[in-house]
Amino acid sequence: MEHLRRLNAKISSKRRKLNSWFNRQTENVLIPLYTSVDVRVSNNKIVPVDTNVFPAGFNNLSELFKSRASKLFKDYFKRKYPRAENILIVPELHTRNFHYWENILVLRSILENIGYKVDVGIVSDEFNRDQMSFKASNGKEIGVHKVMKKGHKVFTSSITPDLLLINNDFSERCPKILRDIVQPVEPPVEIGWHTRKKSLHFEFYNKLASKVAEMIGLDPWTITIETTSLKGINFDVREDREKVAAVADSVLDRMRDDYGARRIDHEPYLFVKSDSGTYGMAVMNVSSGDEIRTLNSDKRKRMRINKGGNPVRNIVIQEGVPTALRLESDITAEPVFYLVEAKVAGGFLRLNEGKNEFENLNTRGMKFAQMYCLDDHPAKADQKLLCGPTYELVSCIASLAAGYEIDKILKEGGCKEEVA
Question: What does the pLDDT read at residue 129?
C-alpha cells in the first residue's frame, strides 16, 4: 500500500518533533497503565476503531512481545511504585472462557518474570469460596482467591498486595470493595465500561490526531475517524430507528463528498454500535439509512443489550474503514496493538475467515495469529505492512486519548453509584 509507505516516511522524518510533543502530553494527563488498540488500515487511511483500557489478550502475544511487555511494566512499576513487591491481579469472572484464563496466566508470568509475587483475586458477589481454580486453553490451571477487605485495605488469604492490577472492565458496576483503599489501583476502576463512552474517547482521539497531523503536515483525514453519537435510542421503536437512519444518511453523504474528493471508488458504509461495552457486542454495519429503518427482529435483538445484559440506549455511528490486510492472501485481518504507558509492547492479528473486508471481525469465528514487527525482529513476508511508525502513532494517540478520558471521568467523580 503506497499510501502507508508515504505515511511511514513522513512520520519517520518528524520523529523527534513527535516524541517531544508526546512527552509534553504525558506530563499533563494520567496515561492508563496498559491499553489495547484495534486498528483498521485501508488503502486510504489507518485509524483505531476500539481502545480497551483492560486488555485481555496477552496470551496472543509472541514471546518477544511478552518480554518487551515485561520490560515496560518493570520500568513503570519501579519508577512509580519502587517499594511494591506483591501484586494482585483482579480478573473477570469468566468461568467458561478458557482463552481468557490463559491471558491471566500469561499476564501473571509477565509480572513474575520481573521479580514480583503475584496472586489472582476475584471481586464478585457470585464468588463465595476462598479459593478455586480455572482451566486455561493451554490445559494449565490457575488458582484464584476471593478478595476481602478490612478497613481501607484489601487482601486475599495468600497476600496483602502493594498494588492492584485490574484486568476487569466492570461493565455492569463499579465495585465498592475497591473504593477508598490505601493500595494503588491500576488502571482506576472508575474507568470501566460502566462509565466510559466510546463517543468521548473518539472525540479526544480525533482532536489529538488532528493536532498531530497539522504539526507534521499530514492530511488529518488519513488518521481520523468520523464518529457521531446519539442518546436514548431503542431499536425496537420505529421513531428511534428513523432518528438513527436520518443521522446515518447525513454521515454517509459527507463521506461520499470526501470519497469523491479523494477519488475513492467504493461506497461508504458505517458501523452502528453501543456507546459503551466490548467483546464486539451490539455492533452492526450498514450502507444506508434504509437498512436501519427496516431492521428485522434478529438485528434489533442484536442491538438490544450489551455485555452483562445492560440495555443499549446510547450509540455511536462511526465511519466504516475496510481492512486491506489479508493473511495467506484470503483471510481478512486487522492488527491489535498492546501498549504499556502508551509505549507499544507488540501486538497480534485478529482473523476471521467468515467475514469480508467491510465487516466486524470481532465476532464468532475469529482467530488470532502472532505478529512480528519490532525493530529488533525481522517481519515475516506477509506481515511487512504491519511494521512501521504509522501503526505506532495512531495506537499511541489512542492510548493518550484514553488518558484524557481518565482525567475527565475522575474530575467528574468517577463511579456514579456505590454498590457492593
Answer: 83
